[in-house]
Write a structure and sequence with these properties.
With about 260 residues, this protein is an alpha/beta fold. It has 10 helices and 8 strands. The chain has a single domain, classed as Rossmann fold (3-Layer(aba) Sandwich). The strands form 3 sheets. Strands 3-8-7-4 form a 4-stranded parallel beta sheet, with helices on both faces. It has a two-stranded antiparallel sheet with strand order 1-2. The protein has a two-stranded antiparallel ribbon with strand order 5-6. The two termini are about 30 Å apart.
Length: about 260
């Protein structure tokens, strides 16, 4: 089941941090998609790293982004000089692993913030391309892709779920089906960025998700835009595991 964005009153257009178009109202979304080539001439897409026109991330800037590489935790991929980080040593993690192509730094942060908070939805295919390539190199096996859900009220406010946009593009490129009705967000929690410690973030999302789809015996690829403390994806993974998922890998753009 693919959820559609709900309309809201037109408020106008501005430019985003990439130099591209930022749509401030959802009724304009279909219009901007149809008028995409013309809008690219008026508001050209520019690289988040160097500002060069032509795309949201040029090859040179992509090559310069710090990769997520050892030393790191073998389970959650956070930087660690031990095989398992302190969190994974102290917790029975519900996921089989967390993986991402990049470290959560400069250009990656800018791209995710633009997608998430500045309505730069047109960048989703490029970001998902990077995630898909990394996943296929790392593992590439799953029966279903499940995006981390937003609470319905927050999705109505934003107009879309950025993780669902990424998951849809990853599904298109890998051929793995996406299901948006696997997980539901049942409690509208304060944003994780407002929490000051990892423990606060973990407490914030306890009981916030529910597995409402059939994942028994399935290998699930859980997609989120970024994993920082891992609290959100751990809670989602726990619900998937309790519902019978046999394998759960988490994929994000940055870690």
């Amino acid at each position: 089941m693919v959820r559609q964005a709900c309309p809201e009153p037109v408020e106008g257009l501005t430019t985003n941090g990439f130099g591209g178009l930022e749509v401030q109202s959802r009724p304009m979304h279909l219009l901007t998609r149809a008028a995409g080539p013309l809008l690219d001439l008026i508001f050209p897409r520019t690289c988040a790293g160097c500002g060069r026109e032509g795309g949201y991330l040029c090859d040179e800037c992509e090559a310069a982004i710090p990769r997520l590489e050892p030393p790191q935790c073998n389970l959650c991929s956070t930087p660690s000089r031990s095989p398992l980080c302190a969190w994974c040593r102290s917790a029975n993690q519900p996921f089989d692993g967390i993986t991402a192509p990049f470290r959560w730094t400069g250009v990656v942060q800018e791209m995710v913030y633009a997608l998430k908070y500045r309505n730069v939805r047109a960048s989703a295919p490029r970001l998902a391309e990077l995630m898909s390539a990394h996943f296929m190199e790392r593992s590439g096996t799953a029966d279903v892709i499940a995006p981390v859900p937003l609470h319905p009220s927050r999705e109505r406010e934003r107009g879309y779920n950025q993780s669902e946009l990424l998951a849809g593009e990853i599904s298109n490129s890998t051929g793995i089906p996406m299901a948006t009705d696997v997980l539901a967000r049942t409690r509208n929690t304060p944003p994780q960025v407002s929490m000051s410690t990892p423990d606060e973030r973990r407490q914030n999302v306890i009981g916030a998700f529910e597995c409402v789809g059939d994942v028994a015996g399935k290998r699930v690829l859980l997609v989120d835009d970024v994993v920082t403390t891992g609290a959100t994806v751990a809670e989602c993974s726990a619900q998937l595991r309790n519902a019978g998922a046999v394998s759960i890998w988490v994929l994000s753009l940055g870690r």
